[in-house]
Amino acid sequence: MSKFIQFNKRTVETKSNINAARKQGRVPAVLYGIGKETLTLEVNEKELLNILKKNPRAILQGKVGDDLEVPVIVQHIQKDTLSGKMLHIDFQHVNMKKSMDSKVTIHFAGEAVGIKSGGTLQVEIYEVEVRCMPEDLPTSMEVDISGLDIGDQLLVSDLIFQGGIEVLTDPDTVMIQIKTVHDEAEEAAVVTPA
User: Fold this and answer.
1) Residues 112/83, Cβ–Cβ less than 8 Å
2) Backbone torsions φ then ψ of 68, nearest 5 degrees
3) Is the dihedral of CA 177, 178, 181, 183 positive or negative?
4) Which H, E and C letters describe 111-144, residue by residue?
5) CA 79 to CA 56: how far, in whole Å?
């Protein structure tokens, strides 16, 4: 069941109007992918944050005014570099009958054996790109790393997704590895200029 989000149409595009809306907790947004027209909208920041906290890749049921209700996904969020507040959001219409490209967040669970033996955990990537039908898009994926020892690594090819999900990220990409403190020191020495 997709989450519902209310969009309101923006009519006046002045900087002062946009700033006033932001102060009231409304974030400027655009919705594209419905025909040729890009809709200029605004969305309640608090409402959206609550949804995205649970699933940043959620397919939302967006309601524009009283007439139009469409499935959408957050494509891009522009944030203020200092405050972290949302400045602008791009939403894209999702065609539920066509496969789509998106990203799935990977959560690493358990404590690796190699860490207990004195190794250090190095995470290279936290998400992978996939292609699937919208209803098959997973919220996230949990991967148990408790069996990893010093020198072990987990590749994208080690992930097992349900049928119908094609992984687009290079299968040889290292997601996580357990290194010795010695390896870490050597890497730091190579990176640090003399």
Assistant:
1) no
2) -105, 125
3) negative
4) CCHHHHCCCEEEECCCEEEEEECHHHCCCEEEEE
5) 15
Q: What is the mean pLDDT of the chain?
A: 85
3-state helix, strand, coil in the chain (%, to 5): 20, 40, 35
What does the pLDDT read at residue 63? Answer: 87
DSSP secondary structure letters along 131-184 = EE-GGG--SEEEEE-TT--TT-EEEGGG--PPTT-EE-S-TT-EEEEEE-HHHH
User: Going by DSSP bridges, is the β-strand pair 120-123/68-79 parallel, antiparallel, or unpaired?
Assistant: unpaired
Distance CA(20)–CA(70), nearest Å, equals: 27
Instruction: Specify the amino acid at residue 103.
Output: K
Tokens at 139, concatenated: 């919220």
- Is pTM beyond 0.85 here? no
In this structure, the number of other CB atoms found within 10 A of the CB of residue 78 comes to 11
Which structure tokens are listed for 149? 């020892």
Q: Pairing mode, if any, of strands 39-44 and 68-79?
A: unpaired
**How far, in Å, are 147, 159, 171, 176 from residue 114 at the CA level?**
8, 20, 23, 12
For the stretch 151-162, pLDDT in tens is 999 999 999 998
Taking only the tens place, the pLDDT of each residue in 83-109 is 888 888 999 999 999 999 988 989 999
